[in-house]
Every structure is written in C-alpha cells, then in structure tokens.
C-alpha cells in the first residue's frame, strides 16, 4: 500500500530559525502574559496585513467569543450555515442565538439578498464567514447593517493574506477574526487574532483576554485568551515564508484546475478584484453519490480528502432547526482535496490520476 496522503500538512520552519527564538525565551525567562515575542508578532502582523490593531489570542474560537463580548452583542446574530462549527457555537457560548441564513452558490458565502428577511427586533449583529478565503459581499452587508443598525463581525479563519480591492479582508466589518491553527496557511501551532480599527476597542479586547484586569485594577469580566511566547515564536518564523507558501499553493491550485477541467466538477470562482491566498482546493460534485464514489475511490488508495464543510450547521442537533437548502446541498456534494506545498511530484500525480480514474465507468 502506498504512503497515506492526508488533506493537509503543517508547514514548519527550519529548526534553526525556531531555536533562535527559543534561545531568547530562555534568556529572558518570559513565557506568557504578553511577552516581547507576542508584542513583536502583533506588530509584524499589523505591518504585513496593513491593519490598524491586532490582538493575538489563544485560538480562533476565543477570538470570535471575545469579539461578540467586546461589541456587547445580545439576542440574535444572523450567521452563515456553511462554515466550521466554531462560527455558530461561539454565538451560543456567548448566550446569543444564531439565526442561520443560506449561502450563495456564486461564492458559498452568506447570501446578502436573504439577510434582511431574517432581521427581527432581537437582531443585533451579522457574523459572516469568508468561506475558503473568498470574500463575502461586504458592501451589500455593510449597507444592510447600516440600515438596521447592526454590528458586523467577519470570521476570516481562511483569509490570511487575502485582499479585496487591494485591502486586507481583515479591515472589513466592525472587526474581523482569524485562526492561526496548524492547518492554516499561516499558523502559530494554536492561535488566532482579532483585527480592529478602533484603539479603545482593541484595548478592551486586550484586557478581556487577560481576565478583565490590569494589575490590581479589575475592569470587567474577562477570560484567559492569551497566547504564549512559544506560539508567537512559531508565528514569527512562519511569517517570513508566507509569500513562498502562497506562491507554491497557487501553482498547485492551477495544476489541479487544469487537470480536472474536463470533469463534471465546480471549482472556486476567484473574483478579479481579489488577491487570493489559495488556502484550500474544494470541488463540488454533481451529486452526493458522485462525491461518495470519488471519496471512497481515493480512500481505498490511501488518499484522504475531507468533507469540508459538513454538515450544514443548521442541521446539527444543538443548533436552531432552520431551512438552508443551498448550504445543505453543497455540504453533501463538496470535497476538499489534499492541498499543501509539501506534496511531492509523485504524490501530486497520484492524486490527479486517482481523481480522474474515479470518474471512469
């Protein structure tokens, strides 16, 4: 049996580069509580992404929860049914109610034309995901939010390095969040961030992730959402190689696209005004049965794609039961193929050949 190929693989820097930061940690003995490497990473992210303020957090889920709490959101939050579960579970965790809105087949993001019909007197915000890093229709959402006096949070877990109209997508909305989990194109092993345009709100997040106090002065209810010097060190290393990572992924993205263009598959539509990061390679099949056939064919050959996103969030047993037919359909037909720079030429050919052969009768 051939060596297994999984859907993703973590990009790691050279040990020597990471060890240089470890030496600094050992020298100063500062391992957590907003140490110098955490501050350095936040500053470098602000510069790289051209965003005003960055608050580095334990993970992307905590980032979402901090965002909801900092904006003092209560009641109902209109959100997408097609995302990772943390997008919606964070809403419930913060004692709010997710109201699921279906997605557009065009970009797989929340359909702005369906948002207004979901608004009630209890609605306080919109939480939308830039699915696979493809930006939401931000101008339409901004217009709706302004009309109804709603806050807007963007879950940009897939959006590192993505630009819309030459501006980082983390600059849209009242604030944005992301994940720096090891599976992301930029990672700090575990981690996340909140991106903000307002200094006072940034300070509120900073205190909120540190138990809500500054020294002996307890300001408000907080939580432990800090991250460590060791995680920040990984981020500082990985930031230096992010451009080459995106370049490699772009090459593989179009190699797959060209290899599969004759197959009955739907690929991501990257808008002309978007500078993309090539974080994922999802394909949408004609039917759930066709997806199952290819998935089983690949797995029998030790190639492991992933049904991402599945299931549609509105169908999870602890979520509100709401009808989102497009999201439910796509979640049954989508498959993310193995996609990372470390794939060898032999492995890439093996994946391509297996997908092609899965369609042969």
TrEMBL record:
UniProt GO MF annotations: transaminase activity
Keyword Transferase carried by entry: yes
A Pfam family: DegT_DnrJ_EryC1
E.C. number(s) listed in UniProt: 2.6.1.-
Keywords assigned by UniProt, alphabetized: Aminotransferase, Pyridoxal phosphate, Transferase
InterPro entries in UniProt: DegT/StrS_aminotransferase, PyrdxlP-dep_Trfase, PyrdxlP-dep_Trfase_major
SUPFAM superfamilies: PLP-dependent transferases
Transmembrane segments: none
Signal peptide (residue range): none
Gene3D superfamilies according to UniProt: Type I PLP-dependent aspartate aminotransferase-like (Major domain)
Family label: Belongs to the DegT/DnrJ/EryC1 family.
Name of protein: DegT/DnrJ/EryC1/StrS family aminotransferase
Origin species: Autumnicola musiva
